[in-house]
Structures are given as structure tokens and as C-alpha cells.
Specification:
With 389 residues, the chain is α/β, with parallel strands linked by helices. 46% of the residues lie in helices and 16% in strands. The chain folds into two domains: 191 residues, Rossmann fold (3-Layer(aba) Sandwich), CATH 3.40.50.2000; 187 residues, Glycogen Phosphorylase B (Rossmann fold, 3-Layer(aba) Sandwich), CATH 3.40.50.
Amino acid sequence: MSLIFLAVDFPPARGGIQKVAFELPRALHLAGEEVGVLSVCAPGSEEFDRQCPYPVARVPAGDKAQVATNLSAGVVELFEQFTTPPQAIIATKWFPEGLSAISARRLLRCPAVVIGHGREFRLTGLNPLKWLMQKYIMLQVDMALAVSEWTAGQLRRCGVRRDRVHVIHNGIRPKPFETPIDTSALREELRISDEPVLLTVGRLVLRKGQADVIRLLGPIMQQVGPVTYVIAGAGPQEQLLRDTADSCGVQEHVRFAGEVDDALLPAYYQLCDVFVMPTRDVPGDPLEGFGLVYLEANAAGKPVVGTDCGGVADAIEDDVSGLLVPRDDDGALVHAVSRLLLDGTLAQRLGQEGQQRVRDRFTWDRVARRFMDAIGELPQPATAAGTAH
């Protein structure tokens, strides 16, 4: 049986959903499954597709409605290239991929599955038309895969039956983060002496919480002494973050690394003493549906600090892989970060236990196995076309 993924958000573009859309098919391919991805044309995609270990087809880009139409047509053509019958169409988001999946499944006589990340189900409240379309699509799909328990709750709120929702956490490839790296050159490049290092990796947007760490850097240093805070990522809030550092008088302790290539990220994780990303619930902005960066930091043997917000509680196991603090609680955040910087034994334990937790539960091969277990519960392709909703 073959599987095809519909993924508008796909490399060479970067981001969390793009990682999932590439890595999950890759893990399935390595496990012996016949898989392919249908995406949209993008700069650099031809070179990327040539090096991809599984087939990738592209359709013209455009507005989302046009892309949905293009995907619906392209998925049928791609399936014709497969040597085994289709087992399922997997939409990596509810729109436009989900609409294309439920449209194509009648022609291909196989089930349609949608992956829910969480954030997309919080952005429709002020748009009734979008909300109705989301509701329609999620009622039609044969299965919905949630990246966290919080996301599963959002899917059920959209009307997906409880027995059709499966939680399949995201994963990582831990080896690049585990392999020891000499970080002395990076420390010199970032002008960091021997003080401890805090790190956040993520887009520079309000919900990621970099501004909160900058704002609380003074109180943290009052407890632990000099600290350098490294911010890896790019985004619209960069100038605001720089201004915040200036106004708080901590600009000499903050380093903006900009967008960091994936191949260089392991060095940043190994450089830090504590990884911190205190995500926030910002009105009109999506919550964190899971948080791959917490797993990446753990894979490097580092303790993590995050807020109990969205699906972060699935990525961080409190007092096992890191410390989970209530959102919007400045005192708890200062205490958690300071505690890890002052208590080396605790920091080492959480880093080591977090690393083992990643190996045991969050490698992509384990995710692929859980994914196939869930897909195995779908109706057989020969009868799937008759499961109208």
C-alpha cells in the first residue's frame, strides 16, 4: 500500500510544519513504506527534490483556493506513478491540503487523513466563513492526527469524533544534536566569555516569549550573576526585542544570531546551559501546538524551561526533561531559570533524562510506527469510498 502526503509547507521552505512534512514521509520510506509528497513549486525546490529520498511532485503555487484545486488534480496523477494501491491521502494541514484530500479520496477510493498542529484551530473565531469551512472539512475526514493532547482537544471542538482522533507526537533525529561539538569558535563569534548561556530558537514573534526573557534577564542576573542570552531566529519582532533590551539595560547581555542554518543549530544547543522558550497566549496569534525545539535541546543534553501553554506540556515533562511554569508568571519563570543555572546537579539530571526521553519516545522511526498503527485502523481502501459522511 502507498501513502501520499499533501504538503504546501514543505522544504526548501523552513519551519516546524515543513520539518514534519519532510521527516515523517522520510521515516516511513526508511521503514519500507511507499510514500510520496505533493507540494507546490517554490524557489530552490528542483534541487531539493532531486536529493529527496522519496518522490516529490509539485503543482503551481497561487492563492489557497487555486492551490487546493491544483493539489486535487495532482494527487491523482501522482498516485498513478505508484506500484501499490493507495492506502491513504494525508493532508499536513486542514487547508488547502485537507480540502484537496477529501476531494481526491472519492476518485482514489482511499481514506483522507488530516494532521492537526493546534495553532490553526485558534485563528478562525473571528472569521465565520473560515470556521464553517474548517468544520466541514474536519467532519469529512476519516481520521485526524493531533501532535499533542491539547491539539486533540481542538480537533474534537471542531466536531471530529473522539474515535477518529489519534495523538501522534512530532519527532526529531537526535544524532546531530547528541554528537559532541567544539563550541569554542561559536562562543568567540558571539563574544561570550565564560558566563552561562540561555538560548531560545524560534521565530521572532510575540508568542515565542523572547521579550519576556529579555525583560526578566535583570532579575535572573541578580540571582546568578552575569548571563548571556542568545536568540536564534528571525522575524518581525526583532527591532522590538532590541529596543526592549536597550530599555531594560541588558543589551550587552543579549546576542541576536539571526536565522541559523539547520546544520549549525546543534552547536547552538550545545553552547547553552539552559534552553528557554516561555510561549504565550497572544490574542489573534496561534499557540504553540507542540514545540520541536524543546526536544532538540533535550537531545543535546540540555534542560529546558517552557510555559504550560498550548501543547508544550507534551514536549516538556515537568521535572523530567525540564521545568514547566505557569504562563504569564514572571516570578515562576525567573525562579525556574535561576534554579537551573545555580543547581548544576539538577540541570545535568534533567538534561540527561530529557535526552533519554527523546531517544525512547520521540525519534522519527518511533513516530512512524505509531503513525502506521493509527493508519492501520482506517477502513480498507476497497471499501473506503463508500464511507460518505
